[in-house]
Structures
1.
Amino acid sequence: MTITRLRKLPMARLLTLPGQNIANPVAMVHSTAMLLDHLGAKHGDVKLDAGRTIACGKD
Amino acid sequence: MALRAMGTTMPDDVAAKARAAHGVVVGPASTEDYPSAAEGGINISAWFRSQFDLYANIRPSKVRPGVPGHVPAMDLIIVRENTEGFYADRNMAVGTGEFMPTPDLALAVGKATTEGCRRIAVAAFELAMRRTRHVTAVHKANVLRHYSGLFLKQVDAVSVDYPEVTVDKVIVDAMAAMLVRSPEKFDVVVTTNMFGDILSDEAAELAGGLGLAASLNAG
């Protein structure tokens, strides 16, 4: 599934992806948030608090 | 696509860019469908873990409102040692940790080092200090007395530096059941490579599925 196609999906639809043989992007989005948090903590860079923002938006 | 175009799942230019980056986001890959490494089918996750010594695999599992899970409540993080254990593709400096002396005999080596166990324990306790200060160490020391025993010894040694953190020890088979029965009792779970691999997939499925399961490999 391309990113373009994902953007057209309403949020509720994303929760119905399991079992349809369609890539679920939530894990990768959350993983990216974890990476940004980790790098922010490691380098003391507050700009990388973006990770927390992504996680909050996803919740 | 890279395999078809360049004969390898890890082209040199991608590897060079990864080495120059602070972090890399890796999408899901069907490594079971890959040919052998000799034919270009390099396991990307394993490659990153071993090349960059990403010893800590941090895998949170959380039940979220509106997402159908198999348990009512769960908010835990599994801290899995990532470079040792029974993983034949990464636990040896030279050669593989799995071999067959005869066609009817297969052997696999499980590796645990003092430093490997110490640093994953430190990662778990540091994480616990930012959460509820509760670490559960999962092991199989009743059978693997030396392998799991070394791991538990390092958990005990590291715990001395974190007196605020409560430590439980649970045998892996009991842990598999307790994750289903009462996942809300756990917060930070630290364990060796294969146990962590299996338990984190179990926890992810209980929380809603692998498609929702985030993961960080850190070193």
Note: Residues 1-12 of chain A have pLDDT under 50 and may be disordered.
2.
Amino acid sequence: MTPLLTFATAMPAYGEYVYPAYLVAVAVLGVLLIASLRRRARARREAQSLPTRGDST
Amino acid sequence: MHRFANPNRFLRLARAVFPWAVGATVALLGTGLYYALFASPPDYQQGETVRIMYVHVPSAWMAMFVYAAIAVASASALIWKHPLADIFARAASPIGAAFTLLALVTGSLWGKPMWGAWWVWDARLTSVLILFFLYLGHMALLNAFDDPARGQRAAAILALVGVVNLPVIKFSVDWWNTLHQPASVVRMGGPSIHPDMLTPLLLMAAGFTAYFVVTVIVRIEAEILARRVRAHRLMQGG
């Protein structure tokens, strides 16, 4: 927590609108990327559970 | 294009490109953020608030670029029945919607200190809002039918019809009186923006493009695997 606070207090003051714009960008793109990775991981799990060709079960 | 119609061949290529795209995203966004937040100067009129430009403008560019790519893929799916085109359109649509939302929200955060209003029903803002609704409509249509092929066809037609909105967005600042500033990078006579500001802007735009490549590869792979599982279950059920 302390390094984060040190970093936050060391950031230049740009008024009340600049950082929220960057935070929104990080949040939107971050959530989309994580959701996509989770979706791929689920799809990989399901595909791996399929019987391979020649498997009679 | 048809060389990559085979999903297995595409997946092999995508898996080779993926680590490079991740590296490029990290490097470009890291450098771009450094320039945008620390190394670029404030604007002589807008002061520090100009730094919002480095996320707002690349988001708006990507919103339009992704929509154009979806339209090309949709045309390819309708005309040539390219199997990966539908998958690409489905994978790219939420990413384009995210970029459009980002352009709208960051534009609003920029508009408040500069214009004194979060939102105005200006031609540029309204046409970008319509683009956001087109993305939502595209995603809704893809999932609106029991038969996925019908949903893909309806969504592809919507994507093609919606292309008419792209030149409206681009030229809205020239055709109508608007609060939004005119083009300062992609314009006749070259960019009118100072290189100190153009550098972070282009770095962030390249970073957003690399992010798009990473995310779309992940989503395409997920969709190909999900279709494989669905097809297998249908065969088992039938």
Note: The longest helix of chain B spans residues 195-237.
